[in-house]
Amino acid sequence: MIEIKDLVKKFDQTKVLDHISFSVKKGEILGFLGPNGAGKSTTMKIITSFWPATSGTVEVDGIRVDKDALATRSKIGYLPETVPLYDEMTVEEYLKFIAEVRSIDEKNISTRIKEVVESCGLKKVLHRPIDELSKGYRQRVGLAQAIIHEPDILILDEPTTGLDPNQIVEIRDLIKKIGQEKTVIFSTHILSEVSATCDRVIIINNGKIVGEGTPDELTKKASHNELIYVKIKGEKDKILKKLDQLENITKIELIDSESEDINGYEIKGKHGIDLREELSKAIMESGWSILEFNRKSVSLEDIFRELTK
Questions:
Q1: pTM of full prediction above 0.85
Q2: Segments forming the whole domain that contains residue 171
Q3: Quick one: which of 30, 76, 173, 194 has the fewest CB in 10 Å?
Q4: In whole angstroms, how far apart are CA 174 and each of 103, 168, 223, 231?
């Protein structure tokens, strides 16, 4: 449905996208995950033909975006990070305006408005001015305008930014509902959105793809590494130096502190190695006290942090 090959985007001499390639299948919900400034919005704008690529190609349903932008735009519904709404219009007036801009046949406009109002849960606010709506309802209106012309593909750029927890759940459920019938790409830096919504995840950092797979696949790849949390009473610098000398430890990170001599450490070991005996022995022989010791399951948050640091 969407094929991106060797995509590069530069602003002056700054490379914002660095030869990224990926594809999205029909009916798939793809999460485009990365920290702020990673290149997510730039990719969305190139797919939707708002910005040209410096090099590389984007195809939408077999059509090159740079060759026929109008044809590809007709297949895409786009919700940018800042929703372009006209505050003085009512919801109904705005959707009618968008339907006309999208060249929907006049005799079908009323029906399409009813359908998107139903899909996006806008019936209660249909006749209210947009400037009176909450952020959550404004996002719903943004989604309605993105699907009113019945596109095959939906591109959503940070769709839950600024929403409260209840609104986030509502928009997430709406995306999943829409995704049953359409191909969806949505960019986010919120990890819970990806786990709850996506079939597949791409992680981008500094303009490069650094991870790809289903949430379960990414977690399984990382879970081969032993990950232990241990809280130790003892001199911090000596503990870090001692544990760093252990053969099977690949990384030690100080992650919390109760006091000067009580600290929590996250310790990563080599693939397939059980660190517990070696680690506890080294701590006890050095005369330090173990206050807490547990194995950690690897989460998407751990993977994200590792790949984007």
A1: no
A2: 2-214
A3: 173
A4: 25, 10, 31, 42
